[in-house]
Design goal:
Length: 357
């Protein structure tokens, strides 16, 4: 059974695995004042401790009898309950092929014996900081998903619209020369473009007819409501989302809303999302219309160049129509499977971070 040494001033828990008691004692002296420690003297004990206690990090000796560190690491990475725990190998081996094998089976770092206290502390701090950053990113992505879906809570017929149009937006942004990092931010911001619809009555959002003039004025307010909500964050993603929420209904010729911006005064992010949003709306079923075929939709988009849309952006959009159709096909397939197993679009976006086409 793993031995636990509690430390009340920090919740971070580290599992130390080594078959030499003197090494366990040395790690204890280095780490006892900063972390909650667990100890295991062999590979089998290590797997049991990791499964039971879910430590925040594992320091794992490579050279142990019967079940060595590579075996232990491989086993833990194959188990969904323990695969996300970062593992740092501790070894006297310095051969390049040994380190390569360790990284291949899932380790995040190496510490060489004889161990140095300052080096151990820095390596652990680096890995725990990376974990904290990932947890923060996960929380932010959860907020994005909730806000994106909230904007369409009363609009049940849009389905996976927000995720598909976000993929269109990223594809067009990259085709326009945006750096991949900025295109990724836009892709995450775009799903929140209609967040402000949570302030619009569902009788208007679900109306299976053209809106009255009074209803239309109420509907227009969703851009400002969304901006007011999203602009409260200083995060780059939410700043772009606020910009898009406010301006995605502006038109190139200045006849849009809510401000009446025209041409280059409209942020590029909003010009891109406007194209993606309208193309997806045209090609999907809505309460008031059947889906258009893609040729008709492309024709409509092209015809609005210079009035509704930035003509240069439309030119590029038409040039990459093949890539746009590939994105559509992929998300149409995901949508078709929704009834069987609901997809997690943001997880897909984060784990498939490559250009389409």
């Amino acid at each position: 059974m793993a031995r636990v040494s509690a430390c009340s001033d920090t919740p971070k828990r580290i599992l130390i695995v080594d078959d030499e008691p003197v090494n366990l004692h040395l790690f204890r002296q280095i780490l006892k004042d900063r972390y909650q420690l667990l100890f295991a003297g062999d590979g089998e004990e290590a797997i049991g401790a990791a499964t039971e206690h879910k430590p925040d990090l594992i320091l794992l000796d490579v050279e142990m009898p019967n079940f060595n560190g590579f075996d232990v690491c491989q086993h833990l990475k194959q188990d969904n309950e323990t695969r996300s725990i970062p593992i740092i190998f501790v070894t006297a081996r310095r051969e390049e092929q040994d380190e390569a094998k360790g990284f291949d089976v899932g380790a995040v770092d190496y510490i060489h014996k004889p161990i140095s206290g300052p080096i151990v502390l820095r390596r652990i701090n680096t890995q725990l900081s990376l974990v904290a950053a990932k947890e923060l990113e996960s929380s932010q992505r959860s907020a994005i998903q909730m806000l994106g879906e909230a904007g369409h809570y009363h609009d049940s017929d849009t389905g996976i619209h927000i995720w598909r149009m976000a993929a269109y937006a990223r594809t067009l942004a990259e085709a326009l020369g945006w750096p991949s990092s900025e295109a990724s931010i836009l892709e995450l911001a775009a799903p929140m473009h209609d967040t402000g619809k949570i302030g619009i009555p569902d009788t208007i959002l679900r109306a299976p007819r053209a809106l009255t003039a009074k209803e239309w004025e109420i509907m227009k307010r969703h851009t400002q409501i969304g901006f007011e909500i999203l602009s409260k964050s200083d995060s780059p993603i939410f700043r772009v989302a606020a910009e898009v929420a406010l301006c995605h209904h502006e038109r190139w010729d200045g006849t849009g809303y809510p401000i009446g911006l025209s041409e280059d005064y409209i942020p590029e992010s909003a010009r891109i999302v406007a194209i993606a949003d309208v193309f997806d709306a045209l090609t999907t079923k809505r309460p008031y219309k059947e889906p258009w075929d893609v040729e008709r939709a492309f024709g409509e988009i092209l015809g609005a160049a210079g009035s509704h849309f930035d003509p240069a952006f439309i030119k590029r959009f038409m040039e990459i129509r093949g890539r746009i159709l590939e994105v559509k096909k992929m998300w149409d397939q995901i949508e078709a499977k929704q009834k069987e197993m609901r997809p997690d679009p943001l997880h897909w976006l984060s784990t498939n971070n490559q250009k389409t086409g």
